[in-house]
Amino acid sequence: ACIAGVFGLEDALRLIAARGRLMQALPAGGAMLAVLADEKTVAPLVDARRGDVAIAAFNGPTSVVLSGSAVALHEIASQLAERDVRTTPLAVSHAFHSPLMAPMLEPFAEVARSVRYSLPRIDLISNVTGALATKQIATPEYWVKHVSEPVRFAAGMRATVQRQCTTYIEIG
Fold first, then answer.
1. pTM
2. N or C: which end of the chain has fewer CB within 10 A?
């Protein structure tokens, strides 16, 4: 977003630093779980624990990441193991892109509202939508969603293929 001109380097660094500081200040107890299954398989398990667990990332057609309470994710992993669905706990400090991020959203929104935004000067794909970024990327609300909503990596990759991209760089 910075390279595309959505905001300057100083604002980008302020957003990144605030995001990291606020996330790290959250209580421990969150976890993330990679699941080799599709959304249809995991959605009922996530829905049963709404508020504790969410789908944090759509990485591929049969690759999602769940995020939330470590206890709830352990239960989900056990249920999936009974169905021979492979899961892998991720080594993370917190439950990113989950309901457990809620306490940091308003303080982060305050920082996001202090940033000067511009429309992108070059095309970029949104991790929030998985599509070409629109004017929404130049709003504080977008960057708050970026914290709390799932990463749509698979959709983003499809969008780049549709745009006939041949070189890919992911920076995270």
1. 0.91
2. C
